[in-house]
Design goal:
Layout (H helix, E strand, L loop, with lengths): L1 E5 L5 H12 L2 E7 L2 E7 L2 H13 L6 E6 L12 E3 L20 H7 L43 H7 L21 E5 L12 H10 L4 E4 L4 E6 L3 H12 L6 E3 L3 H5 L6 H8 L5 E5 L16 E5 L4 H6 L8 H4 E2 L2 E2 L8 E5 L11 H8 L5 E5 L11 E5 L2 E6 L9 E12 L9 E10 L9 H17 L6 E5 L5 H12 L4 E5 L1 H12 L6 E11 L5 E9 L4 E7 L2 E4 L3 H4 L2 H12 L9 H6 L3 H9 L4 E4 L2 H13 L9 H9 L24 E3 L2 H12 L4 H27 L3 E5 L6 H11 L4 E3 L11 H15 L1
Parallel strand pairs: 2-5, 7-15, 9-11, 10-16, 18-20, 20-21, 22-28, 24-27, 28-29
Antiparallel strand pairs: 1-3, 1-4, 2-3, 6-15, 7-8, 8-14, 9-14, 10-11, 12-13, 16-17, 18-19, 22-23, 23-24, 25-26
Helix pairs in contact: 1-2, 14-24, 16-18, 16-19, 16-21, 19-20, 21-22, 22-23
Length: 781
């Protein structure tokens, strides 16, 4: 038997061993580069029972994709059933397990003073612990992980070789005696400590005192502080982020989360599952979390502890009795904190730091102390971010816990690299029926991020034995990924490169994860994407399939003065929209925004009129920025999309009124498309409401409702022309829950709507779409 799927590093071989032994079957089981191989002999009825139980009783972390059975071999007359050494086969690959949060059994041992691993920060077993972040190569064996330097003590060695033990072939298996250890270093003279030789206890005390700590975790460093300490969080924001982007927080348990957030049953399930992602949850009014954690935002980004060290950090002291620590079968910590800030340990826009020396070099200006350990991280991986939307998980950032789980495509693919975009980058490797999407790489705008891309690509190519023959990339000529594709084909003339339009990739990504191959009305709304006409697209309605697209509709082009600079200075696009709607009369408008920017108007108007460093855009993301800037008097933002987020957060959900929207008319009858939606009337109505003293929360809601109405009217028009009733929504604008809700409600009658689930709707998902488009075009050629 050959079993493929997630069957390595999850206790599958001991499960097979014990199952075969219980049924009296003989033979062997081993790991290979393509999964698990079983050679088994016995009565046919018993082998049938074995096969059924193999599927129904497999370990909780395993995921069987396929079982191939080959019969008719001559009997070997095995006398025992054994676990053999792993077998490596050239070109073959096995699916790799992601890193898994601490399991209940290990947590119980961690908190039990009578257990030999009591308070050991690196306790793990075959059901939990590091996987992807420590694997050097496959098959997944200890010598191919960063645990290879730790020689197991006799007790750990005995567990490791005992098929009946939960730690049988648990590659990171270790204990206080033989495994990784913590080390504390205090850098700030403000926080003196008496004894650095008790790193855990001292770190907890420092956090209580308001210190900021750099704490080495599973896939990199976190920067931590007490989330209820205003001074500490404010100091962290000033030191690290210098922006209003929300910090993630970690709470000790569900009860603590319920004190600060609204929590549904499905949200609780998301928080509690073995992947332990960050979950976006609505804030409760009157919560005790610092106002600096998530300013101007209605949500917290919350997670539960997912490593033993995290659990220990929440302890109220480090010496408790068994009765205090254990509550029946479920351990409960007596927590020091209701929440800790746990934000990525990096400098702005750089990848998360994984190396102790690198942390000292880069994070010393931020952290008052460092809590290190000496288990190396091979593959850096950030925390995943998900949202509970209509009782279903929606991934926003795909990283720890989800990577390297592949996306099953339901179609055979050549070996392809989809390079992704410039912002929120991921790449995709396609092989067989799978798409392997990398963890979140980030914005490819510095050397460190580019190197992270390269090291991750090298690792995943090796782990999945992929040698791409086709390179798919964005059409933008200045993206690093475009230059990479050209560089690769220069050195490897046999490669084929396929440029893929940004918004087509968005829609195909949504189609692929929903297994749709027929044409759809694809609505791709985001901030930036290079169009086939050289303009910046972003408010697109595409009639799309895997092969290609027709641009059916878009927002009217407006000038984007300063190009990318307008992302950080949204007053530029706001001024452009006002100039477009009113001409020079916009300067006479008696609204605060005009008074605020009056000293800047002359140079921006000159840029627009003379097309100096100015491109044309149809971007919905920039339209959000413009409206928010106009009604909230926003000159500059501290992170991309901040103005748009503020507009969403302030919207009054009780408002159902909308602005009058243009009925979609074709620009010409031959060809009928593209329809152009004129935003000038919308801008004028918003300004009129401002002049009439309408509350900004009402204006925001009416604007959102108007966009949903535009979507409905355009889709209705396209459906009447084509008969297509399938609508795929993609792009960063659909992270806006108000917009998504109103859009789905409006399309509920007459359309079948598809949205992203396991693949991000933002630019973190376009690499998948690129790979699918490239495969389709390659098949045709």
């Amino acid at each position: 038997m050959k079993i493929s799927g997630i069957v390595q590093g999850v206790g599958f071989r001991p499960f097979v061993y014990n199952l075969a032994a219980s049924l009296g079957l003989k033979g062997y089981v081993l790991n290979s580069s393509e999964g698990v191989i079983i050679d088994i002999e016995g009565e046919s009825e018993i082998i049938d029972e074995f096969t059924l139980l193999l599927k129904s009783k497999s370990p909780p972390l395993s995921r069987i994709e396929n079982i191939t059975v080959a019969e008719g071999f001559s009997l070997r007359n095995y006398t025992t059933f054994e676990i053999k050494e792993s077998l490596s086969k050239s070109g073959k690959f096995a699916l790799i397990s992601p890193d898994i949060a601490t399991c209940p059994n290990c947590l119980s041992e961690l908190l039990n003073p009578d257990d030999r691993r009591y308070q050991y920060p690196f306790i793990n077993c075959t059901n939990c612990g590091p996987r992807y972040s420590i694997i050097l190569d496959i098959p997944y064996d200890r010598h191919e992980t960063t645990m290879s330097k730790f020689k197991m003590c006799p007790e750990c060695e005995s567990e490791y070789h005992d098929p009946s033990n939960r730690r049988f072939h648990a590659q990171p298996n270790a204990c206080h005696v033989c495994g990784p250890q913590l080390e504390l270093r205090v850098r700030s003279s403000e926080f003196e400590v008496k004894n650095e030789k008790e790193p855990l206890k001292t770190a907890i005390e420092l956090l209580r005192r308001g210190a900021i700590g750099a704490i080495k975790g599973l896939g990199g460093f976190h920067i931590a502080c007490d989330a209820t300490n205003n001074e500490a969080v404010k100091r962290l924001r000033e030191k690290k982020r210098k922006s209003n982007k929300p910090f993630a927080i970690m709470c000790p348990d569900i009860n603590a989360i319920k004190k600060i957030c609204e929590l549904s049953n499905s949200g609780e399930i998301l928080l509690n599952n073995e992947l332990k992602p960050i979950v976006i949850l609505p804030k409760l009014k009157g919560n005790t979390i610092s106002e600096y954690v998530a300013p101007d935002n209605n949500y917290f980004a919350v997670m539960l502890p997912y490593t033993p060290l995290h659990h220990l950090l929440f302890q109220n002291g480090v010496n408790h009795s068994t009765s205090e620590l254990l509550n029946s079968s479920t351990p409960q910590l007596l927590s020091s904190f209701i929440a800790l800030v746990m934000t990525s340990g990096n400098l702005s826009e750089e990848p998360i730091v994984i190396n102790n020396d690198e942390a000292m070099e880069k994070l010393s200006d931020i952290a008052d102390f460092f809590l290190f350990h000496n288990r190396d991280i091979y593959m850096r991986v950030d925390d995943s971010i998900v949202r509970d939307y209509k009782d279903t998980k929606r991934v926003i950032r795909r990283a720890r816990g989800y990577v390297p789980y592949p996306i099953e495509l339901g179609m055979k693919m050549p070996e392809i690299l989809g390079c992704g975009g410039e912002l929120k980058n991921t790449f995709t490797l396609a092989k067989g029926h799978y798409a392997i999407i990398s963890q979140h790489i980030g914005d490819l705008q510095n050397y460190e991020a580019v190197e992270f891309f390269k090291e991750t690509l090298k690792n995943l190519k090796n782990s999945f034995r992929v040698e791409p023959t086709i390179i798919a990339h964005d059409m933008h000529p200045n993206y690093w990924t475009t230059k990479l594709a050209k560089e690769l084909i220069t050195h490897h003339s046999s490669l084929t490169t396929v440029p893929v339009q940004h918004h087509h990739a968005h829609i195909v990504s949504c189609m692929a994860e929903n297994h749709i191959k027929e044409k759809v009305i694809g609505i791709a709304w985001d901030g930036t994407g290079y169009g086939i006409d050289g303009a910046i697209w972003g408010g697109e309605f595409l009639i799309s399939d895997y092969k290609g697209f027709e641009r059916a509709c878009h927002f009217r082009y407006v000038p984007l003065p300063g190009g990318d600079k307008a992302i950080k200075e949204p007053y530029r696009i706001a001024l452009s929209h006002l100039y477009d709607a009113y001409g020079m009369d916009f300067l006479k408008l008696n609204i605060p925004f005009i008074k605020q920017i009056k000293d800047k108007t002359k140079i921006i108007l000159k840029m627009i009129d003379n097309r100096i460093n100015t491109v044309m855009t149809s971007s919905t993301g920039r339209l959000f920025d413009a409206v928010s800037s106009i009604i909230n008097e926003i000159d500059t933002v501290t992170f991309e999309g901040e103005a748009a987020v503020k507009l969403e957060m302030m919207a009054d959900k009780s408002i159902t009124d909308t602005y009058k929207t243009q009925k979609p008319e074709a620009r010409s009858q031959k060809p009928e498309y593209p329809i152009v939606i004129d935003t000038r009337s919308l801008i004028r109505q918003i300004v009129n409401d401002l002049l009439n003293g309408v509350d900004r929360s009402v204006i925001s809601a009416k604007f959102h409702n108007a966009l949903a109405e535009i979507i409905f009217e355009v889709c209705r028009r396209i459906k009447s022309n084509t008969g297509i009733n399938r609508v795929a929504l993609s792009g960063g604008c659909f992270q806006n829950i108000f917009l998504l809700d109103r859009t789905i409600e409006r399309l509920d009658s007459g359309f079948k709507v598809f949205i992203h689930k396991d693949v991000p709707t933002n630019d973190g998902g376009i690499s998948l779409g690129q790979a699918i488009v490239a495969a389709t075009k390659n098949a045709e050629s």
